Amino acid sequence: MSKIEIKHHLSGDILFAPDLGAEYDDESCSVRLGAAVRIAVKAHADLSGAYLAGAYLAGANLADANLAGADLSGADLAGACLMRANLSGANLTGAYLAGANLAGANLADAKGISPHRSTPLIMLLDQPGRIRAYKLVTHDGYGPFSGGLRYEIGESVSVENANTDVTVYCGAGINVATLDWCMREWRPGYRILVVEFEAKDIAAIPIATDGKFRLHRCDVVAEKDLTEIGLVPAAPAEAAE
Fold first, then answer.
1. N or C of the chain: less Cβ packing under 10 Å?
2. How far apart are CA 218 and CA 176, in angstroms?
3. CA–CA gap between residue 213 and residue 221 (Å, rounded)
4. pLDDT at residue 238, as a whole number
5. pLDDT per residue over 94-146, tens digit each?
């Protein structure tokens, strides 16, 4: 049986010390540390201030974890679920966050986050001219989550005080996304509109976003054919008489 200790990065106090299975005996320290963190989070352990530098946490479920002030420098958090996690004051220098879900996470005063390492959509800021993205709406053209704004083809939409904080996953503004994001969130009765904007219209591309970002303004230019993209089955052909 392999055992590993998770310690506070300043005091050295032991925060959690789980027994790992024998299958971890020959694993690297980063893998063993990552396994220990998974167990700790499942046990609702308080990992605030934990030394987790270099931990292998790719794909880990860390939702609601208390990682405030933790040292996660160089940690592999690719694809990890960090929904509602408390990362305030955490050291994320060099951490790999590509594809991580940070919805609702507290990133206040987190250090060392590099959007250029973890947010592929940041490329939109360098695009010249018109850019297209997608807006998920209800059958009558309103956003399905917060509502308020109505989107109609041929019309322009703008928000005066869109949230520009990239540490906030979902904030005020025109929330648009990639097509795959809209398809994941689609429900029967929803529509997917095509919007156009320019780089200067982008309010925020949240860190490690899974495809969602915010705009100050956009033009609604078209609607996706849901049958063509496979969300709605094609109507059966009428039998020939």
1. C
2. 10
3. 18
4. 61
5. 998 888 888 788 888 899 888 887 788 999 999 999 999 999 999 999 999 87
Cβ atoms of 128 and 148 within 8 Å: the answer is no
Residue type, 178: T
Burial class (CB in 10 A: 0-12, 13-18, 19+), 69: buried
Q: Which domains does the chain have, with CATH numbers?
A: 1-115 (2.160.20.80), 120-223 (no CATH)
Picking from 176, 137, 175, 130, the residue whose alpha carbon sits closest to that of residue 153 is 137
Instruction: Report the 3 state secondary structure along the chain.
Output: CEECCEEECCCCCEEECCEECHHHCCCCHHHHHHHHHHHHHHCCCCCCCEECCCCECCCCECCCCECCCCECCCCECCCCECCCCECCCCECCCCECCCCECCCCECCCCECCCHHHHCHHHHHHHCCCCEEEEEEECCCCECCCCCCCECCCCCEEECCCCCCCCCCCCCCCEEEECHHHHHHHCCCCCEEEEEEECHHHEEECCCCCCCEEEECEEEEEEECCCCCCCCCCCCCCCCCC
Task: Give the tens place of pLDDT for each residue, 7-65.
Answer: 999 999 999 999 888 888 888 999 999 999 999 999 999 999 999 999 999 999 999 99
Least Cα distance to 52 among 102, 174, 25, 69 occurs for 69
Phi, psi values for residue 221, rounded to 5°: -115, -20
At residue 239, the pLDDT reads 54
Q: Is the pLDDT of residue 240 over 60?
A: no
The residue with tokens 């880990």 is 60
